[in-house]
Amino acid sequence: MTRIKLGRTPTREVDPRNSVLREVIERLQCHELMRMIQNRHGVPPCGARLIVLASYGLEYSVNYCYDPMNQDHVDWAFGVASGFPERWDSIARRALAPYESCL
């Protein structure tokens, strides 16, 4: 399996003194981003998957694990890359609204 980082969420900074809250919000944002990707492009092909990974402490990102020898996996990745969400949809905005005052 190969893994590529699809991208980070369009987040703003959270008060660094509250690292637990920041982790919760960033994970929620990643899951909303994964939902948006799947709504736009469908679920990843069989054998591939979207995952949330942390890097450099509390910086979370959505990653795609796939087999580079499987053309369906590669095509799906290129489709996502060419139509990656740039803004939150209305469902994500509603899900993230309770945390707006923390951002």
Describe the model.
With 103 residues, the protein is an alpha+beta fold. The protein has one domain (2-102). Helix content is 41%, strand content 20%. It has three helices and three strands. It has a three-stranded antiparallel β-sheet.
Task: Provide the fold topology.
Layout: E1 2-7, H1 19-41, E2 49-55, E3 59-66, H2 71-82, H3 90-96
Antiparallel strand pairs: 1-3, 2-3
Helix pairs in contact: 1-3
How do you describe this structure in short?
With 103 residues, the protein is of the alpha+beta class. The protein has helices at 19-41, 71-82, 90-96; strands at 2-7, 49-55, 59-66. The longest helix is centred in the first third of the chain and has 23 residues, at 19-41.
Entry keywords:
single chain; three-stranded antiparallel sheet; 20% strand; 103 residues; alpha+beta
* Number of separate strands: 3
Q: List the domain count as a whole number.
A: 1
H/E element string? EHEEHH
Percent strand: 15-25%
The total of helices stands at 3
Mean pLDDT across all amino acids: 85
Low-confidence stretches: none
Radius of gyration: 14 Å
Strand order of the largest sheet: 1-3-2
Distance between the termini: 35 Å
Overall 3D geometry?
A: globular
Helix content: 40-55%
How does the major sheet shape up? 3 strands, antiparallel
* Class computed from helices, strands and strand pairing: alpha+beta
